[in-house]
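Researcher: Good morning. I'm working through a list of sequences from a screen, and I'd like to move beyond sequence-only analysis. For each chain I'm collecting a predicted structure so we can compare shapes side by side. This is the next one on the list. No need for commentary yet; just the structure.
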Amino acid sequence: MKNIYDTLRERGFIEQVTDDEQIFDLLEIEKVTCYIGFDPTATSLHIGSLIPIMALAHMQQHGHIPIALVGGGTALIGDPSGKTEMRKVLTIDQVNENVEFIKRQLSRYLDFDGGKALLLNNADWLTDLNYIEFLRDIGRHFSVNRMLAAESYKMRLETGLSFIEFNYMLLQSYDFYHLSTHYNCLVQMGGNDQWGNIVAGIDLIRRLEGKTVYGITFPLITTSSGHKMGKTEKGTVWLDPELTSPYEYFQYWINSDDRDVERFLSLFTFLPIDEIRMVRELVDAELNKAKTVLAFEATKVTHGREEALAAWKASASAFNLKPVDASILPSSTIPRVPVAQDLSAMATITKEMDELEKGVSAIDLFCEAALCASKGEARRLIAQGGAYVNGQKISSIEETVGPGRLNENGEIHLRKGKKKYAVVKVG
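Model: Good morning. Structure tokens for this chain:
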């Protein structure tokens, strides 16, 4: 299986890392526990939280152990990162109510059974801290000068930074320390506005334990038109179906800017990256169908397949679109290359593994799949640059296709030009 670090990078999740090579090696050789914090300032997370949620889901799919940390303790303080003014202070009862809602919400994306993932609340250890002991044992390792240099604090100095918010970096660093010592958590991930807090936690663990841990941050996503992700004229797009219905959620994605479709498919669906890359070649009606794939897949991830199908059918009815068989919609478990055509017309051929081991001529494959009527046509197609295997152009008429081209579902995808496709399966 591909290293999760490569998966996250090629899908656009990586903004900053503390050490590229060491993190890659760590994730290559062992099962790693990682964590991301979620702020329970409302009863629901919103689309802006999807990048960290999807990152944890990818980590789990690659065999690592994600910790989703709900900030029941730090929410009583308020994270100043990315904020121009102090957040409204919530009561303990409000925070606890929000925590319970968000715990249930995260269970849609991560499998918490059998220790495959952990769902924790930092109130369980932060609220029991003795303030004097905390200042003596933890606070002494923090330089005020370095803290003020952090971007999350610098941008607040002009408008005012309260002392209670100034403590946030210490508490988040302590979270990483606690998870490192009690759960052997080695990687903290978060939005790029968390870089200063993550680095501070890494430094604290090094000082207290002499242990090396790592940090990864994600880009803060805006649309190609410059708008903040998840904001519409109606307000925030929530992950809770009671606050944003599956139909409204579907509509948000289907109305994506043309320039965002490939990027959003990479970040917010589990479709194979080779398939997603083909979107860059689509235009007009074909690109609109790719938006339907994006909307369906993104809605399915958050609300389930049945709600995604219902939202798609309601959208087709509302906008007088010609109804089509629901089987053309892709599935996260059965990757499909042709997002812009009727999949029922796609050719499928079968090859034995021992035949693939020897390498099958690309020319022969395109003929067998009826993408070309003759070997001469296949040669011309390849010479003109119109033949693709798994989204990659065939560069030579001598090229062969072997088992190394099989994707994780045991398939090889062939394409002629922009519109004709076939799938090779192992018999």
